[in-house]
Amino acid sequence: MRLSSGATVNAWTFNGQFPGPELRVHQGDLVEVKLINKLPKEGVTLHWHGLDVPNAEDGVAGVTQNAVQPGESFTYRFVVKNQPGTYWYHSHQASQEAVEKGLFGALIVLPRDDSFTGKDIPVLAHSWPTKEGSYQQAFDTFDTLKRLAVQLGTPVRLRLINTDSLPINFVLSGTSFKVIAIDGTDLHAPTELTRQRLLVAAGGRYDIQFTMPDTAVSLDWLQKSSKVGLLLSRDGTGNAPALADGPVFNPATYGSPQQTPFSLSSHFDKEFSLVLDDMIGFYDGKMQSVWPINGKVFPNTPMLMVHEGDLVKVSFVNRSWMDHPMHLHGHHMLVLSYNGRPVTGSPWWVDTLNIAPGESYEVAFRADNLGI
Ligand SMILES: [Cu+2]
């Protein structure tokens, strides 16, 4: 398949498209998706990343179903809960390779009474594997500057989706903006930001909103020697504004507090502590760097067993030198504290939390979705 520059990448496609088709649904909808596998050799599934679906529809090969083999099909059916926001879907059989090659797409849940009339722009940030054996960063299939014409005064919502396996730093330049949602949950009383770097976890999503000014606005994927970007201007032409890079945005202190169903002072039915480390170990038949949790690597890592209805607290400590996105299926976690300090801003709900080297977090969730 070809990127906008003409560079070719090795891709697997949904319906011949890469990324896959954008799925837009409304909260409360009964959604049915038929997956038909026409790949010659590889099994596939569909996982609805961030959507709290019944366990049997979660699409994790080897856990909630077997992979759908070549020539087979599988129909997913679920009711979209009350969670309007930005999600994505991807194959979850050998997902590293399948996602890398393009078996993913945006999944947008709109509110029942959707009244937004501005520009709604999903941005799927992805590193495509090139034929030369390296990676090409792109927004969707744009590895060159993507230009869009937007009229002055138009509300613009950018849905930033990180489809890679490492964090991505985004910078928005040319206007102030608000981060209005993280991982499909609206933030409470977000304030205007400028010159902030947005670090989105692998698999995570940030929704940002601004009103289109008279001059150009650009979204950049922060990295050296990249021409990847999105440029919005009145007629789609013109130069990008100066890069408005700055300190990393901290959701723990952004927005204002609001009532939550539980907090740091709640009684928890179960508490777990997970220490992420690195060490040299024997794995997959060779000595290599491994990433243990509490000193063990999969399949010897601790199993977290809880009962339906339990209020569960989990502490994460990252003593390794690698970023680790901790992702919970079927539930959203409320972040309670960051590096020992309670969250003071908006309630911060996540399904995917980046734990950077040296960081610690406490999160909690209500176990209200039975499954493995
Ligand atoms: Cu997921």
TrEMBL record:
Claim: Cell membrane is one of the keywords in the record: no
SUPFAM superfamilies in the record: Cupredoxins
Keyword set, alphabetical order: Copper, Metal-binding, Oxidoreductase
Organism superkingdom: Bacteria
The Plastocyanin-like domain, residue ranges: 6-113, 142-214, 289-371
Protein name, as recorded: Copper oxidase
InterPro entries: Cu-oxidase-like_N, Cu-oxidase_2nd, Cu-oxidase_C, Cu-oxidase_fam, Cupredoxin
CDD domains assigned: CuRO_1_CumA_like, CuRO_D2_2dMcoN_like
Pfam families reported for this sequence: Cu-oxidase, Cu-oxidase_2, Cu-oxidase_3
